[in-house]
Fold:
Amino acid sequence: MSGASSFPRQYARTQRLTLGEPRSISVSPDGRRVVFARSRAGDDPVNCLWTYDVTSGEERLVADPLVLGDVLEEPGDLPPEERARRERLREAAGGITAYATDEDVTVAAFALGGRLHVADLIAGTARATDLADQVVDPRPAPDASRLAYLSGRALRIAELDGSSWELAGEDDPDISWGAAEFIAAEELNRYRGYWWSPDSRFIAACRVDNSPVHRWYIADPARPDEPSREIRYPAAGTPNAVVSLHVLDLDGGSVEVVWDDQQYPYLADVLWGDGGRLLLTVLSRDQRHLSVLEADPTTGTTDPLFEDDDDAWVELVPGSPALLPDGRLVVTADRDGARRVMLDRSPATPHDLQVRAIVGCDEGGVTFVANHLDDATVTHVWRLHDDQLTCLTEELGDGVHGAVVGGALTVIRRATLDRPGTATLVGGHRLTGVAETPLVTPNVTIHHLTDRRLATAILLPHGHDGTPLPVLLDPYGGPHAQRVTHSHNAFVSSQWFADQGFAVVVTDGRGTPGRGTAFERAVHLDLATPVLDDQVDALHAAAQLAPLDLGRVAIRGWSFGGYLAALAVLARPDVFHAAIAGAPVTEWRLYDTGYTERYLGDPTEDAAPYAATSLLAIAHRLTRPLLLVHGLADDNVVAAHTLQLSQALLAAGKPHEVLPLVGVTHMTPQEVVAENLLLHQLDFLRRALPRPRLSRVGAG
Structure:
């Protein structure tokens, strides 16, 4: 089982089969070049930088970290700001994990081990610079005349002659310039904190003051000789960082952009448009009110362009807002039960499409990703132009589609249920992918169960004879994540459990994305009841379709899925007989403001939703085997969640198991940890599930 050819080893070695796939794709505005990162093999974690010439059809290696003299960095070798950036992005690979280009996509900048590198994308060459600073998030000016980068808490400029200077910085250790604060990166999908103006003369930069945010401490119990690590963690109901936006003139001087930051404290997005138009998207703390503002870069004054309100929350969508070449504002908003593209403040897409992302706005129109409202398992790429709506990927069939747009060129990313991995299509060419083929093949069927049409995947062992099987539910189940899609690799870990003798059931219930306004917002002020009810109802419906032994039902999950797994055995032991809860939220007061207050409100104003969804309050109800797993270095769902639940269980006299992962964060990228964690879970399930009770077997 643990040999080199086993699936757990492969899954760990290949970072869940993601290595070797083209990623971080950019397209030049003239549509002639595609730039992407990719490692040399499916088990190689070192990403290189490549280009594809559309005219010649040639793929060319531009930058190889090993040739440049930089071996794969150890996490401890990276600047702390880079480690934090990767953790927020859930980035486990090494080498060139991120890069930025000029406007014409002729040069690229990236950091390796904190050292600045630049690449000539036309000549296909790359070099390290002599810059002595530790560099994070380098970005060329649009005209490629210079570079900006972060070093420590400062925003700096590198000139072409090799010199550098500080554009913005302060001695105060609580203040940083040009970086995204924790909530922006973790919960608002804003991973950067500075933006070049189109004319390369100005930079709009965030100033972040973390002094109001409470101090938390993360220790490594395995190394008692080392001090604890201090972090600033904005738990629900506590102060956030203070974020302001400033337009910095490279010739000197700055202007602060002014808006009602008491009403709208969250800065969700910043966008420079043609002609120096500066747009920012701001959110109220309860996230029920959103405003897109246009700022005057010379005075800092702002005027609203678009406002949106919702009784639950306003959803942020990647790529929104955007500007068309004629200056029209493109946004997304929930209208008539679906998320729709809005032009001139009016819905421009039909009410049966759920828009997931805007990926392009140009002379060709608005390109976006969407799914039909009644089926979120399939997404397609669409284009809206002159009131005409065209599906660009319909002829490719069912699958999970995305796109990157550059001029007249649209690069399509496609995953399907019947083929491993992801195909990156540039016209008639498929970019080379060297990801490994999974050692398991999903034996999966997808259904829409109950009157709520819950997307549910059922996986059985290959060649199963139809006898009743113990059941493993394998959901995530919470906001912003899907498990049931028409993607082969989405089900490989579930299939491995199925091949060990389980029927695996995966369900996306209410609160998960893609199914419209009411479906997503059914979890408002209650992250427990609808989520758990949907898992139970889908399980019982699946028992009418497959040979499920309802007397032996387990559930496993990570993060929100870990919360759901622990909730299941505590609240519904009549249905669930064992649970594996990985990195679970157990007490929502310990989780961050941006996520938790969006769904449960502010606990200082109304604590009832928090009390009703806490696992600590129902710890005394445990009657089933429960395995808790948690990384002790986790700074997202801190280990206190698991430790406090374990304490409550022990106080109630409830036996349980705890597996602490030393040095592991919210990710589990370490190969030995990832492999043996799967094996340990299998061992627990075999020990924990009772023997068959045939009187409770579901229909075959």
